[in-house]
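Possible race condition, two jobs.
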Amino acid sequence: MEHFDQTDARILNELQRDAGQSLESLGDTIGLSRNACWRRIRAMEHAGVITGRVALVDPKAVDLGLMVFMQVRTHSHDPDWQAKFNKATRTIPGILSVYRMTGDLDYLIRARVRDMAGYDALYQQLIHLVPIADVAASFVMEEIKDSTALPL
């Protein structure tokens, strides 16, 4: 995007808070007309600043109350293994995020499952799809802060 200003940042902050609000409401909050807001949003979408609009779902309401972080270590770092791992993690619905890491850990996976049996099923599915040297899991006991909003 060629020009990103404070008004764009204010629009993004509002959309991160509630992307479902009307353009009229957004314009009132920002101090712009409905059309001016719409033009700025479209420009940010075309520039790739806004990559999508989603509904945030309460995991407990859909029986996915257990969050797990899986620390993955591998013996292989070749491109074929990485492509297979990437494809496998993208196809498993319970896996929400996958990060390639520095240090002792190769990958960090964040997943949501119903319970311990759900975790075991996810784990079995993953190791069936791609060979992994070691997996350690940590289960979230309390979510203190979980946000999707970027600080702008």
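Job #2 (started ~2 s after job #1):
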Amino acid sequence: MKVPTHSGSVGSVAPGAVNLKGRHFLTLRDFSAEEIKHVLRVSADLKKRIKHEGQFLPLLQGKSAAMIFEKRSTRTRMSTETGVSLLGGHACFLTPQDIHLGVNESTGDTARVLSGFADAVLARVHSHSTLEELASGASVPVINGLSDRYHPVQILADLLTLQEHYGSLEGLTLTWIGDGTNILHSLMMSLAKMGMNLRVATPKGYEADSGVLQEARRLSQQFGTALVLTSDPMEAAQGANVLVTDTWVSMGQEKEKAQRLRDFQGYQVTMQTGSVAAPDWVFLHCLPRKPEEVSDELFYSSRSLVFPESENRKWTIMGLMVSLLTDYSPQTPQLKI
């Protein structure tokens, strides 16, 4: 059934189209190349039709999302609240002080309760196992808004930003310089599927999780892409199209700050780092950012795509919600993702 809008049809299911309706979204490891591309196509389509053409698309009218936040947030909260609202739905913000998650009520029971109230549950949690418990008990899609192991919604925004900038993801080389964080883990679970090479520089003792790395090597071999690991940032940056870093001191690691800053000496990404990259290189950072991670000169330069990347958190969470909750198929024919 098509829902009327102020400027034409909303969309319908195309024959043979990818359909993710009802799926959980905990890690990109569980999604194929075509499934990831589908979410990116929907995201780009919504951005074009809503932002650039001014269309009204109430694709989530009558639907609601419960948002559990064990950790504070700017982009994840705002992108979800504004995005769901823009599509005609309602997002409800819940902190540990608002609900009984794991206290007086099991996580599984909370999942069952929320499934009766909401059409999706987005959770930003400390432990990835909390997401797995929620998904096990929920009868609606559970979305990973961040966990200690993965941050897949951020990677969707990164990929859309690079697609917009370069016109294609195939063959790009992305260099990660910094800690072996949940962002790196999610990049490892997705880039090879997009035909992208990954080069990683981490200080000794700060490498990616061994299990994630093993899967990344398998994916790289399967899709014929390169995976390079080093502790030398300049070696990792050699020939890269994209330089990426993240916080060196994540939430909960504040007591380790002094030691971490010593261990990450020489890892600040600067224009000098980019001097050995490809001529068309750009910079990404998921934010919030500290000056020790990237120089002001680079962060605020034309090489930096961090603010378009930040905005794309909204369009990709919208694309993801629509993909998991409806049968929508993109209506913009020229999308080449």
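The chain has twelve helices and eleven strands.
Logs attached separately.
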